[in-house]
């Protein structure tokens, strides 16, 4: 298998993962997830096994309505069995009953186990000012 073939396959798998989340297809998501899978984002860092991932998908307070990869998608095979994918994604969500649109930079590390690719690491960084100037300031303690 050529490096370009691996890279194309991984971009397709990344899109399948997003589609599984959109469809709330727990089985498809589990087939694409290493156990544990390390996940990082605005809520911190976590190591999530398949059972916890399934619970998160089933009990989510949000729904992914649409997603679209925007701009360049970068993929790189590091070895025949390890590859990375990075991209910007636009997400249309419903969170706590309210619509939300956001863009984020995402990256995943995929490994081949027993002849199939699984995601071992996924990161998401919501787009915005890297210094947080576009976010609301913390409230001052009212006891001062």
Which labels suit this protein?
144 residues, alpha+beta, Nuclear Transport Factor 2, Chain: A, 49% strand, globular
Strand content: over 45%
Question: What's the number of domains?
Answer: 1
Q: What does the main sheet amount to? A: 6 strands, mixed
The first-level CATH class is given as Alpha Beta
Estimate percent helicity.
10-25%
**Category from helices, strands and their pairing:** alpha+beta
Termini gap: 65 Å
How would you write the strand order of the largest sheet? 2-1-6-5-4-3
What characteristic shape results from the CA principal axes?
globular
Low-confidence stretches: none
CATH architecture: Roll
Explain what the structure shows.
The protein is an alpha+beta fold and 144 residues long. The chain has a single domain, classed as Nuclear Transport Factor 2, Chain: A (Roll), CATH 3.10.450. It has 3 helices and 6 strands. It starts with a helix and ends in an 18-residue tail after the last strand. The relative contact order is 0.18. The mean pLDDT is 89.
SSE blueprint and pairings:
Layout: H1 3-22, H2 26-31, E1 33-41, E2 44-48, H3 50-58, E3 62-77, E4 82-95, E5 98-113, E6 116-126
Parallel strand pairs: 1-6
Antiparallel strand pairs: 1-2, 3-4, 4-5, 5-6
In short:
This protein has helices at residues 3-22, 26-31, 50-58; strands at 33-41, 44-48, 62-77, 82-95, 98-113, 116-126. It is α+β, with helices and mostly antiparallel strands and 144 residues long.
